[in-house]
């Protein structure tokens, strides 16, 4: 996928703001203008593409220092953190465990946070005394899971199969990549860090869209959803005890690889050991493994491919 195609994908998901969004609006308006000059397709289109990309490069993602052993890059987090208070049950178990029931997997956590890797590669941090139910393999048009309690989700993106979390009658559809869910008896709270989610209630044909730093509250008694600004303390607290936050400053790639291995249960294999000493500055918080691999590959001009639980890194290294 080209850089411009990735930009279009972000635009369609509502992840662009300000001048970036205005330029993309202009792009699509121009495409739909039947009266445009016949030469526009050949020249104006490419010029507008270049203007959009130049604009974004001037405001965001990376500054690449090509000196020996030094690569710096800042990523835009595509993460969503959602705090959803579902019906909260307490189980008296000494450790988390997994059982199969009706072709579903169920994980019940103890007093500690349990990490779960879903069939699609999504990561779930299941909080204390909570339960997650999910199929052994996702099939059909949706990836659906059910939660009782609290969990932080980092969802692998698949535009053809939306990710949906059920908490009683409330459904949260992921339009970004990650979110947190927590439980109590009376309501359901959704706090968004970055990205976008849609809240809906069974039998009610209406969605409430939440953007970064917004909180949605579903009142179980009235079956209504309201939204407001989320408290910064709440947004920060949902990631405590997890490996959600992955910020690196001039960090050698071998140490970054160690963190990826711990978080995603993979093995990173550097075909060229020189790459291990390349340093990177980046914020991968809330990013999925595939997103991180893709972004690091672009930033450092190295090759990556993922084969199940193996990540292979190829290339010349930053000093060559």
Automatic annotation (TrEMBL):
Alphabetically, the GO molecular function entries are: sigma factor antagonist activity
Any keyword Nucleotidyltransferase? no
Origin superkingdom:
Bacteria
Query: Where are the membrane-spanning stretches?
Result: 73-91
Query: Ranges for the FecR protein domain?
Result: 111-197
Q: Does the keyword Transmembrane apply?
A: yes
Which InterPro entries does the annotation name? FecR, FecR_C, Ferrdict_sens_TM
The protein's UniProt keywords, in alphabetical order, are: Membrane, Transmembrane, Transmembrane helix
Name used for this protein in its record: DUF4974 domain-containing protein
Task: Point out the coiled-coil segments of this chain.
Answer: none
Cited Gene3D superfamilies: 2.60.120.1440, 3.55.50.30
Occurrences of domain Protein FecR C-terminal (ranges) = 246-312
The taxonomic lineage of its organism, from the top, reads: Bacteria, Pseudomonadati, Bacteroidota, Flavobacteriia, Flavobacteriales
């Amino acid at each position: 996928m080209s850089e411009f195609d990735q930009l279009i994908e972000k635009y369609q998901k509502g992840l662009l703001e300000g001048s970036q969004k205005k330029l993309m609006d202009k792009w699509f308006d121009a495409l739909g203008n039947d009266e445009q000059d016949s030469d526009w397709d050949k020249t104006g289109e490419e010029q507008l593409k270049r203007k959009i990309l130049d604009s974004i490069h001037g405001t965001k993602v990376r500054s690449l220092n090509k000196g020996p052993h030094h690569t710096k890059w800042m990523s835009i987090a595509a993460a969503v953190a959602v705090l959803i208070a579902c019906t909260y049950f307490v189980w008296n178990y000494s450790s988390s465990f997994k059982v199969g029931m009706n072709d579903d997997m169920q994980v019940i956590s103890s007093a500690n946070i349990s990490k779960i890797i879903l069939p699609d590669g999504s990561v779930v941090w299941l909080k204390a005394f909570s339960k997650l139910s999910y199929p052994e393999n996702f099939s059909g048009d949706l990836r659906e899971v059910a939660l009782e309690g609290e969990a932080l989700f980092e969802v692998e993106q698949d535009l053809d199969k939306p990710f949906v979390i059920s908490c009683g009658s409330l459904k949260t559809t992921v339009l970004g990549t990650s979110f947190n869910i927590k439980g109590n008896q009376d309501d359901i709270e959704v706090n968004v860090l970055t990205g976008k989610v849609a809240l809906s209630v069974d039998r009610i044909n209406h969605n409430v869209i939440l953007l970064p730093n917004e909180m949605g509250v579903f009142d179980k008694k009235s079956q209504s959803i309201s939204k407001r600004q989320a408290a910064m303390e709440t947004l920060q607290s949902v990631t405590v005890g997890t490996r959600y936050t992955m910020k690196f400053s001039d960090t050698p790639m071998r140490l970054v690889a160690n963190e990826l291995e711990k978080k995603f249960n993979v093995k990173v294999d550097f075909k060229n050991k020189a790459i291990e000493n390349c340093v990177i500055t980046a914020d991968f918080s809330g990013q999925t493994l595939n997103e991180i691999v893709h972004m690091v590959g672009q930033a450092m001009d190295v090759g990556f491919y993922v084969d199940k639980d193996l990540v292979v890194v190829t290339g010349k290294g930053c000093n060559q």
